[in-house]
Amino acid sequence: MSRYTRQMLxxxxxxxxxxxxxxxxxxxxxxxxxxxxxxxxxxxxxDIHHLVNQFLEEEKTRLSALxxxxxxxxxxxxxxxxxxxxxxKILKNISDSFSLSMIQSFFGDLLMNCAKKRLEAEAGSLxxxxxxxxxxxxxxxxxxxxxxxxxxxxxxxxxPEAVISRACLLLxxxxxxxxxxxxxxxxxxxx
Length: 191
Known about the structure:
Elements: H1 3-19, H2 27-34, H3 38-44, H4 48-68, H5 73-86, H6 88-97, H7 100-123, H8 130-152, H9 160-170, H10 174-184
Helix pairs in contact: 1-2, 1-6, 4-5, 4-7, 5-7, 5-9, 6-7, 7-8
């Protein structure tokens, strides 16, 4: 069996998930869109839940690579916000049908990795302990993930692009001073 067939199945699922809730999508519809036999689906996936997990993992890998090539914090975060905007229905359907924690974990992992890499790069030669880097990364990741997930779930009634853009303007240069402060406190225990 080919990787192409697997990708067709995932694409068919994503198209259906844009149209309706996951509890109204079945294996027969997915394989019908791909013109493959039902057994082909089960060659690649145990069930739709497994397919959803694989879909999110592949998207996470793709988005992570895109964010690593971003030139700024705002550009990196915009990659995730734009993805959420383009795929809001799919993400909302996954959240509603399986669990909100799947979407929180999806964006949380992406943002945590992005924040760590960007902070480490910005820190350069500063001696900052790993606990402080983890705390700062977590603070950034949770803040942005909360905005995105709240917007997807309709509990946040502002456009995340505008909030992120404004926050980046307000915080411009703050990263350097925070990292400098972390460098100064590197020998003090984290309590």
